[in-house]
Backbone:
């Protein structure tokens, strides 16, 4: 996918898709990441896909590591993630590749991530 097309999809998601998804994220299919703005200090929530495995949370990064929410989490070194109604305080953000992260997700999502060429994932340690 071209960078320009990526930018258009990111803008659409931020303006239209994300506000709708936030209405039920954190309880059903989508999860929510709660993070603090690295410049503003303001609290934000962003809908994401996430899964918990052992003491870790894994989040695919379909737009790579240059999104505002990821940069905020990285700058603070922590965030909270709501998955299926439960809030997980998390720290130690690090980017891992699919060989580490994919097995944490259900097989139907693994195939989708592979077809979408997602090769970066955020791994957080649950506190």
Residues:
């Amino acid at each position: 996918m071209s960078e320009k097309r990526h930018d258009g999809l990111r803008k659409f998601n931020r303006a239209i898709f994300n506000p709708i998804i936030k209405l039920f994220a954190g309880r059903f299919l989508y999860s929510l990441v709660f993070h603090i703005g690295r410049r503003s200090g303001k609290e934000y929530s962003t809908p994401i896909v996430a899964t918990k495995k052992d003491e870790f949370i894994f989040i695919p990064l379909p737009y790579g590591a240059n999104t505002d929410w990821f940069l905020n989490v990285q700058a603070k070194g922590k965030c909270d993630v709501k998955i299926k109604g439960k809030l997980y305080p998390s720290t130690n953000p690090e980017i891992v590749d699919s060989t580490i992260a994919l097995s944490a997700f259900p097989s139907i999502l693994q195939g989708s991530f592979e077809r979408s060429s997602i090769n970066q994932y955020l791994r957080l340690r649950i506190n």
